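ESCALATION

Customer reports they have been waiting on this structure for their group meeting. Please prioritize. Original submission:
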Amino acid sequence: MASAEQQLTEHFQQLDAGDQATLLAFAAFLASRSPAPAVTVKAESITIPEPEIIERPEGESVVGALKRLSKTYPMLDKTEMLSATSDLVATTIMQGTDPVGAIDELEDIFRTHYAQLVSGNKG
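Update from on-call: job pushed to the front of the queue and completed.
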C-alpha cells in the first residue's frame, strides 16, 4: 500500500502543468490554515556558582555590608534587589538606627534571591 505522500506524487505527475500549479496553490492554502507544528525547546541547565562567603566584620556599616554581599553573591542581578536594598539602606542611614538589624535583613534578601535563582534553574 502506497503512503499518502506517494499517492499525492503519483496524482501530481498525472496532471498537466496548469493543474499541477493549481494543486500546489491549494496545498499552500491548506498548509497556511494549519497551525504551525509545535516546537519543543529544551532549556539548557546552567551551573550557578556557590556564594563566596565573606565573614561579617565587626562594626560593619550597612553600605559596607552591601558591598560585601555583592562580592559574596556576584551571580545575582543587583537591579532585581535594588528597591528592597536601597530602601533599607536609606531608612537605616536617615534614621540612624542600629545597622545590625538592617545588615541581617540585607543578608536575608541576598540569600532569598540566590535561592530563587538556583530553584529557577532546576529542570
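Sent to customer with the following note: The chain has a mean pLDDT of 84.
Escalation resolved.
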